[in-house]
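Exercise (ungraded).
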Amino acid sequence: MNNPREILILSGKGGTGKTTVASSLAKLINKKVIADTDVDAADMHIMLNPSLIEEHSFKGRSKAFIEQDKCNQCGLCHSKCKFNAIDKLDNKYIVNSFSCEGCTLCYEVCPTNAIVMEEEEAGKWYLSKTDFGLFVHARLNPGAENSGNLVSMVKHQAKQTAIKNNIDTILIDGPPGIGCPVIASLSGANTVILVTEPTVSGVSDLKRIIGVAQNFKPEIAIVINKFDINTDISKQIDDYANNNKIPILAHIPFDKCIVELLMEKRTPIESNDCPEINKEIKSILNYLGEKHDN
Amino acid sequence: MNIAIVSGKGGTGKTTLATGLAYTINANYIDMDAGEPNGRHFLDPEISKSIDCEVMIPENTDKCTYCGICANKCQFSALAVIEKTKKFMLFDDLCHHCGLCVEVCPVKDAIKEISKSIGKINSGIFNKQKNINFVEGVLKIGETSSVPLLEQIKSNLVKEQLNILDSAPGSACPVVSVIEAADFVVLAGEPTPFGLNDLEIVFELVKAMDKPVGLIINKYMGNDLLHDFSKRENVPILGTIPFDRSIAENYSKSINIAELQSKELKHISENLLKLTGYHYE
């Protein structure tokens, strides 16, 4: 079969409503594999109540470790390390594992072979079952390197799961920012939905994330969340999108009901309390559905 | 003294609180969310200096024998060398600028390091009467890692002054870099299941790095999620900001929270200074 279509939810700025939109779509789209690539602050599992099928260890790069009995305190590793990851404490050289990037330079230059590289677990990835479909998610150990690699692993596993089960759509809740986990999420994405908000910060971040996303040439669309907290800036986003030929799929109003439902771990579409919001979220679905038929 | 503001989840109020605190106590504001720097919108700084942050990337010279040792030893798969066709290829977005390739190359001067800009560090002042410093890192679009930028900002911080470090969301390398520099960490918490989940992850990191910590509860709606967290983990609450549509509206216009909630910001500042033991004029 063909590669499944990857629909990725991104935002640039954090807290604009990626996971709310993604979990709502997860509950509305018929047949899909769901993935969460916000691996260092994953939240989608909270809304999907997954039951675990598989758990896998994710190994990071090996990190340096100094065997003190072999070390002659020459300090070469300390002076050559570009990451300032080797501290001198009480006449001993010690690797700060938070700063070590595992480049092996110290291992290569040590004249007494006192440095060993040790493999470390950087996180875990999971395959779970939910009421809404199979779900691939992960947890990066706090402070661990390799968030981009773990993202690629989650995406790879989601794709394998989709192919194996003959499912042609993967819905992905992405990370904030523009750095390595975002770039790893974008690789191979077919449709990118950017959830933004009409704030000065939101617009600034929206333009930056569009710049990053365009390098990967996906189909891009925008959702404006909390659109009515500043209708002037909302209008600016509408105009900006128009000028750049980016469709705007929904204008979601600011409403306490989203937060109140979130407290009960429910999405707006599972309630009749916010009809306005439901209508807007369903128009995102229509857009995705239309494209499906093509 | 460096006070870092972190949250795990995005959009919980890091920049709102960091700029509000800097404004209230005349502290230097340092924007270390280089992917999405937004502090400038709330402090209206006058930028007087903008420098490139440069990293070193390898390039081969005519002395290169295409033996491929550099590519074999690179831990980041950033190099490919093909002996047959005499090709030396660098995938520069994978390069971590560690210098290993230069070190392990068996031929003298076959690889040289050239500089490449990954973004800018802008600095200036935001309070004209008092000359309070404003610094921000801005990562270039398409670059993957802001850490070298953050390290360069850190190396220029004046320890004797009070610096508020505004962090990126999450709990990965850029956040580690910020917490490392901190003498005290403020958690900007949002009392929702998402906010709590991500706060617990970043709190685990703060604990592992052995930093003193306090909590500000933002967008408070009357539930106990974060109060319970504070009791459970023994993290003092510095203050509380209510969930309020007008705060969101004012945020959208980049109005500094210290102008709207001056009493609460003063209260938080006093608690913070008491806990950190820092004295300011």
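Further reading is listed at the end of the chapter. For now, observe: Chain A has two domains: 5-59+123-293, 63-119. Chain A has a mean pLDDT of 95.
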